[in-house]
């Protein structure tokens, strides 16, 4: 197996772990917020996301698919910024109710868009 494929497998695994973890933490925030005070629950996402970002940057450097050269990579970065902002607002919000659910939904929609762009290698993903 080539180094590129190994890094890509690590990246995809971290995407799955990161998104699954966000959905689990988001659900816990809604139904059982006290669980989020656990040290492992607070620390593990940062470790996974660090490996995810490192593998993404490594793949970009290895492939030469820089965001200013390959539009779908650039669009993924914009989607990532939306995901991070919406997810941060959701997770740090002390409000309950519709505002909380809207930010959770925006973060999940952004994550879905990023994955679809990655799979299709197209910023339009059928729109």
Please give a handful of descriptors for the protein shown.
mainly alpha; globular; 127 residues; single chain
How would you describe the overall organization of this protein?
By secondary structure, this protein is mainly α. The protein has one domain. The chain contains four helices and no strands. The protein has helices spanning 3-31, 39-63, 71-92, 98-120. α1 (3-31) runs antiparallel to α2 and α3 packs antiparallel against α4. The chain starts with a helix and ends in a 7-residue tail after the last helix. The mean pLDDT is 93.
Concise account of the structure shown:
This protein has 127 residues and is mainly alpha-helical. The protein contains four helices and no strands. The chain has helices spanning 3-31, 39-63, 71-92, 98-120.
Number of strands: 0
Order of helices and strands: HHHH
Global outline: globular
Radius of gyration: 16 Å
How is the biggest beta sheet arranged?
none
Question: Helical percent range?
Answer: over 70%
Tally of separate helices: 4
Tell me, rounded to a whole number, the average pLDDT: 93
How many angstroms does the end-to-end distance come to?
A: 36 Å
What is the beta-strand fraction? under 5%
Number of domains: 1
Multimeric organization: single chain
Q: Spans with pLDDT under 50 lasting ≥5 residues?
A: none
Structural class: mainly alpha
Ordered list of secondary-structure elements with their pairings:
Layout: H1 3-31, H2 39-63, H3 71-92, H4 98-120
Helix pairs in contact: 1-2, 3-4
